[in-house]
Structures are given as C-alpha cells and as structure tokens.
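seq as requested:
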Amino acid sequence: MKKTIHILEPRIYHYTFGPNEPALIVSSGDTVVAATRDAGGFDNKMAPMPEAQKPKSEATLLCERNPLAGPIYIKEAEPGDILAVTIEKIRLNRDCAWSRHRARFGCLTGEVPGQELLLNEPVPERKFDWQLDLERQVGILELEKSKLKRIEIPLHPFLGSIGVAPRFGRVEPSLTPGEYGGNMDCVETKEGTTLYLPVWVRGAYFAFGDVHAAQGDGELCGVALETTAEVTIRLDVLKGRSIEWPRLEDETHLMTTGSARPLMDCVRIAQVEMVKWLVSDYGFERWEAFQVISQVGTMRIGNVVDPNYTVVAKFPKRYLPS
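struct tokens:
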C-alpha cells in the first residue's frame, strides 16, 4: 500500500498533550512534515505567535510554553498498541537561538512563581542570544563578562517535547514528561532515532515541538538553545505488543525512559523497563539481564527542572544476541 507524505501547517499550536482536536488524520506508515515554533512561540523569523494560533480555554489559564504541532490522529492506533515514531529529519531553519536564566526556575531552586519556599534571593534573570552557524553546525555565544570572550559548541538538534495523549483521561501541560513521553528534554530524540510510545487513547493524538539546537544533560538552567526546525517524522502502529513507558532505539543503543520525582525513581523506572525489554524481546533471563546492564549500561539525565524529571537508560546493541 502506498504511504502518504502529509505537510502539516498548524492552525493551532497546543500547550497540552491530550485529545485536542486533531490537526491531521493519517494512516499507519504515513510521514508528516511540519515546521515548529520555539519554546516561547517564535517562528523561524522570530515573529511571535499570533493570538489566532493560540488555543483558548474558558475554564483555565494555559501555560504558553512549548507550543506543539498536532495532535495527529493515527487511524489504526488503539489503546494497548505501540506507536513507533521514526525521526527522519530535524532541519534547523533559523540562524539564532536563545536561552535564559529565570527566577525560581532551574536546578538550583525548588521554587516556582507564587510559592516562596526559600529566604535567599532567586537566580537573577538573564537572557542569552546564541548565533547558529548552520553550515558549520556550531552555536556561538559572545561572552561579555568572562575571560574567554567567545565560545563555540557543536549543535545536536533534537525534539524536547514529543508524545501522545496520556492515559486515564488526563491532559498534561507541554512542560511535563510522563508515561506518554512529553517534555522529556531527552537529547536522544534526535534525527535517526525511533521513539516507541505506548498508546493510551484511540488515535494516539501524537504531538511534538520544542526543538533544541543543543542542550547539556539535565537542562540545568531550565532552558536549552531554543530554536525552530522543519521536522519529518514517520508514524507506524505496532499491533500485538504493549509497553508502559517510552522506549528509544538508534543504530547503536536500546534506550528506556523514566519520568517522575525524585530522580532515583526515574532511574528505577528506566532500568526496570530495560530489564523487561531484554527479557521479552532478546531472550535474557531477568537477573542475568540486570547483571549485564549493571556492567555495560549507561544513563543520561534528560531534565532535572520540569514538573517530572527524566532519566534515559542506554544498553549497547553489541551485547545483544545475533
């Protein structure tokens, strides 16, 4: 059967993961191409989000961060299935990115606006404007107060927020990660990776956004190099298999995720999911799997700043049976 390539031009960019009105209805195996806006709603020319493209609620105030393209309704997706999301391309389309330090936000504080828990002064607000050399694939920051006056870092674009509608009828902000994916800020959701998401709601209601040009593990200040991109994604529904948490796979590693608080619970969730994967799909005995993971596995911290933290456990494919 011939598969279709869909060009998604969002009429609305949503601020939540959930069964919002679908922006597109597709079939399993189809490809979707869409341009994202950055975490603050700016497009590839740094134009702000028009009011007409913001979702409206008469019942509550929405947090206008991490606008999402979608949701995309996949016809074949049913609760209990797996949605395989192959990230085929992330093409940065802006020559600048921004980051910032925000008061009462980031890994150095437990506070949020309106919840004064500490006596010390908050982290001072400061914005950082990075230039992106897309030909050389480097980010450039001019340092005003440091001995080093200029720094260049390699770019590694990825999707900070990507997921499906949560289970139990929940609607979650685009700033929060969970069993549905969400704002994991996981540097592994990059070009060439396949992300496996559990389907909790008929149609899946897949959405994505929040492209980062670069980010260190943990997203420590709470803000990465926020920018825009044209993203190409293939969506495949896998029947007869179920998972409880997002999984990822690239050329070299199997990866599992856990999003929760405290951070140790993220570690436990991710590692238990890795054991389950090696047992169910690759013939390992449970405790032998745990032993091998303990010796060759690695971990990355997606974020330590969101309402839930995220940890990614990684297992090298070279230790899988042939």
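Residues 97-154 form one domain.
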